[in-house]
Amino acid sequence: MADTLSFDAALAEALSFLPELGMSRVIRPEQKEAIYSLVHGSDLLAVLPTGFGKSLIFQLLIRVKQILSSNAACVIVVCPLKSIVQDQLTEASLMGSTATSLASAILQDVENGKYQLIFASAEEILAKPFLSSLKKSGSPLHQNLAAIIVDESHIVETWAGQRSTKKGNKSVAFRESFGNLGELRSFCKQGTPMGALTGTADQTTQETIRKVLCMRPDCSTVYASPNRLNLRFSVKKVTKDVQLKELKLLVNLIKEDGINCPKTIIFCNTMNEIAVVVNHLILELGRAVFYPEFSTVQDNCILAIYHSNSWQSTKDQVLAEFKTNGVKRILIATTALCMGVNFPDVRYIVNWGPARSILDQHQEAGRTGRDGKKSHVIIIYHGQQVGHCEQEVKDFVRAKGCYRVAAYKTLDATIEPLEPLHDCCSYCSTICKCGGAQCDGTDLPFESGMQEESRGENSNAKQREVTPEDRVT
Q: Which regions are flagged for Basic and acidic residues bias (predicted)?
């Protein structure tokens, strides 16, 4: 296998084309370490935050392998959602890589090595016809396979029934095939590495990923703190009867700015909550829900809905419009939208009640601020909405101090409040004394009333009335 010097030279050559695509030829140390591990045949678990450039790892892996061996190379990438596959195919095309979705490819072409990147769901890749092609020792697919990559790999725990519930039992499997991906190893050439990529995985999840994917004991782990400094966290508890009033900010933004209002995703935990939020916004906005206002057709509606039961054609249309600077500005969605999809310019994430798990909470937060600009994660909830949440989520929204620290503590216990404090979270803004132009919070109208509330809930010297909703655990 290549030594370090030849690897560095091959990587430099592989990076040389990036400026032509408007990208920097300098990659992060964690990306380099991940590529190095896979090139040298080591299994890899890479826990890297949203927007870090995880897909560049397998894109460059192909090029480095080809440079070092002077032979063709290919990578299989397992993706949980069709929307992620479509995004990856688009990105691969821009990078100049030959790529296909296994769902639409001619299997013989895949076996014969026509593609450098093969994207597939767990169900597709574990189907007997593909496994028969993969195990043919003389085929280009078998010989040239540089790695199997599992993208969004935390779902091998959550979707395969490997995560413990609050009662100590294992969760019900949603898609069992993701729990069987370790079987792929027996069909590959000996020494073919397995790579797992994710943006959110605590220690328990990391151990589950290694176990389910049958990773070797010497598996390399590449980790970067999930702390995204451009995100500001706001948490506001309200009573159920006034929760909808918290959408007044959004209504005002749409009425004032129309098609130029900041892109926002509202995450709801149930279909009923989606219906309530959408109906309220339509009622409050009137004709302002359309752009232009006189054109009252669905295509000109500023609002859009996304959930797992939507028609695939509807999902594709919504995603395509929301990625561009089009009419769709407010997207009301379930957790079906919390993985992989790259919206570069979302400014607000509103959680209509916190996510069920802390991993989902961070996945949903990961849809905003991917361009590096200051963005906001706003959790608005009433007591009944935390009843089905994991304990880590309850601890987060009920924190007696910095919400940033509370949000990340299970993923990175070293994280501290962000300076200046008013840029950190809704609690820290109440104790910030920097005197800066934005320290008074006047640019954060959605936090009106939060300062008094935060001081009350975060101070042992004050008491508050406990309602029946508050008693829900």
A: 452-473
**Is residue 195 a contact partner of residue 209, using CB atoms and an 8 Å limit?**
no
Helix (H) or strand (E) holding 143: helix 140-144
Dig out the tokens for 469 from the structure: 């909703």
Eight-state DSSP code of residue 260: G
142-145 contact pairs (CB < 8 A, 24+): 142/188, 142/189, 143/189, 144/71, 144/72, 144/73, 144/74, 144/113, 145/74, 145/75, 145/76, 145/188, 145/189, 145/192
Q: Are the beta carbons of 252 and 429 closer than 8 angstroms?
A: no
Return d(Cα 97, Cα 62) in angstroms, integer: 9
Helical axes 312-323 vs 82-94, angle rounded to 10°: 50
Looking at the DSSP bridge assignments, the partners of residue 164 are 170
Give the max Cα distance, the chain.
Answer: 74
| Helix/strand/coil for 80 | coil
**CA-CA distance, 234 to 447, in Å (whole number)?**
8
The count of C-alpha atoms lying within 13 angstroms of the C-alpha of 449, restricted to the half-sphere facing its C-beta, is: 7
Residue in the structure block whose two tokens are 């299989």:
76
Percentages of the chain per state (helix, strand, coil), in multiples of 5? 45, 15, 40
Please list the pLDDT of the chain residue by residue as tens digits (473 residues).
Answer: 445 569 999 999 999 988 887 777 789 999 999 999 999 999 999 999 988 889 999 999 999 999 999 899 999 999 988 889 988 999 999 899 999 999 999 999 999 999 999 999 999 999 999 999 999 999 999 999 999 999 999 988 877 656 655 555 556 656 788 889 999 999 999 999 999 999 989 999 999 999 999 999 999 999 999 999 999 999 999 999 999 999 998 999 999 999 999 999 999 999 999 999 999 999 999 999 999 888 888 889 999 999 988 888 888 888 888 988 889 999 999 988 887 678 889 999 999 999 999 999 999 999 999 999 999 999 999 999 999 899 999 999 999 999 999 999 999 999 999 999 999 999 999 899 887 767 766 556 566 555 444 444 443 333 334 444 444 43
Tokens 């069920």, residue located:
356
